[in-house]
Amino acid sequence: MSESSHSVSLPQARLLSLDALRGFDMCWILGLSAVVTKVLGRAFPGNGLVAEIAAQFKHVDWEGFRFYDLIFPLFLFLAGVSMAIALPKRVARDGKGAAVRHLMARALILVALGILASGGLKDGVEHIRWLGVLQRIGIASAAAGLMSLWLGARGLTLATATLLIVYFWLLRCVPMPDVGTGHFAEGVNLTNYLDSVWLPGRKYDGDHDPEGILSTLPAIATALLGVLAGRWLTGNARPARKVVGLIVAGAVMIALGWAWHPFFPVIKKIWSSSFVLVAGGWSAVLLGVFYWSVDVRGWRRGIAPFLWVGANPIALYLCSGFGFFRVVSERLMFPTPSPYDWMPACMTFLVMLMVARWMYLRGIFVRV
Q1: pTM exceeds 0.85
Q2: Do 312 and 367 contact (CB within 8 A), yes or no?
Q3: Would you say 141 and 223 are in contact if contact means Cβ atoms under 8 Å apart?
Q4: pLDDT class for 10, splitting at 50, 70, 90?
Q5: Rounded to whole angstroms, how far apart are CA atoms 263 and 82?
Q6: Could you say which DSSP state residue 97 is in?
Q7: CA–CA distance, 354 with 249 (Å, rounded to integer)
Q8: Comparing C-alpha atoms, which of 291, 253, 297, 292 is closest to residue 275?
């Protein structure tokens, strides 16, 4: 697509739904999940339904899908949506060369921040965790952004499908020493094997990593799905049609992902192609719901905390990872007896919200 065709249909106003959904997503990993599980567990001890709800805020051990497994891919999906909105503006203002340099610099910064958040050099070079959450966001979003500079919607769709199919073929057909082909169990699949051989430093799961080398390919596809969703949102269709398109496309992806599950299981820890479709489908549905309610219908009541958090997700994530909110909350509270063991989690989450609000109201937005 030409540079001019990228910039024709740019929205004039910022999509508040994008910030709200990003904040909604981040709140769960920044303490809201702990608040919900502890409060419900204390209020309804031994309740089976509450136990089922609490289980949704834990990752599955290997195969399957829970709400908490959506948090990371949803953020990466939204990074793609943001690029679809921001990159055409940057290209129109500074040219493609500047956009490329921006994407590469952003990726390097996120990789460096990810290494720092994982412990950095404190235990020596051999214990650096080279790949992790922020590293994956940086690498996958940069790759998707670069593709979006030269590919139209059909090209991006073809690239996404190619990444998912090639990844499936590699895990299905490439043999491993003493194991063979077509295995998807933990530690006995090509993704984990390549990490054990080629990924240096510390791995999150012993000799392999959930954000490892080969699984970066389908992670790029997740970001590309976000780019496609962002282009759809910034197109010329009527708002109601945009909402229907996102929800229908999301439902189709969810169905395709579970249809693929018997042949390529839904597994977050290797970012399986079926997982990309299921997570991408739910991400599209949530984006459609938030876009309809916030930007189309104008329902703003109760979304302010999500906007605060969504405006500074990386900064708040790093503060949380370094224990800042927990340390502050511990200094603000007295030791709590057992019946009130839910209070520290609530205080930590409240401290995070207050910091997010303070930054938002003062226009402090840490952009990467």
Answers
A1: yes
A2: no
A3: yes
A4: very low
A5: 33
A6: H
A7: 37
A8: 253
